[in-house]
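Trying the structure run again after the queue cleared.
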Amino acid sequence: MGNELNCKARFGEQRSEGKALLETSEILFRGEFRLKIPFSKIKSAKAVDGELRLETAEGLAVFHLGTAAEKWRDKILHPKSRIEKLGVKPEVGVSLLGEFEPEFVGELGKLTKSVSKGKVAADSEWIFFAVDSKEDLGTLPKISKSMKDAAALWIVYPKGQKHVTENDVLAAGRKSGLKDVKVVGFSSTLTALKFVIPLSQR
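Done. Tokens:
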């Protein structure tokens, strides 16, 4: 998930009030008409007088965002990498639980040699837990007990699915005594929620 703002938008002859969402790799608008503009399809992005103006092959899309226009433009022109958004630092211990795409494993491999798969290593500062169903969340209490100090747990789950929802993940994390602190788009089909041990319990 990215930023969300209520705003006015226009695209060609269409004008509407609605909600604009700045996601990881696209901008969405939901009002009387809908837009979905991948960053890769944007020919130019400008911020002028509080307007975010995006030139696409289909035409000009304008969003009245006020002071946020420049910030959104910069995020579109210079999107953070997945590793930057997840906050993983070089040479830290990482544990992977569940199945992850080779591309992500490769990204981690460029940062650190300390990657454990299938169990939480003692030195892990970052734990990534891939879940496909509510049942997978059943192992969360055990995982939370293996976390130490400021260790971070990212739970990665399917985006927009009913068999395991954001509420399911949040409830399971909180029930395990963890505090949710951040959410990011992991990929076009996956979302990641970050949990930590509450400060009072470290």
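The chain has a mean pLDDT of 92. Worth checking whether this holds up in the mutant runs.
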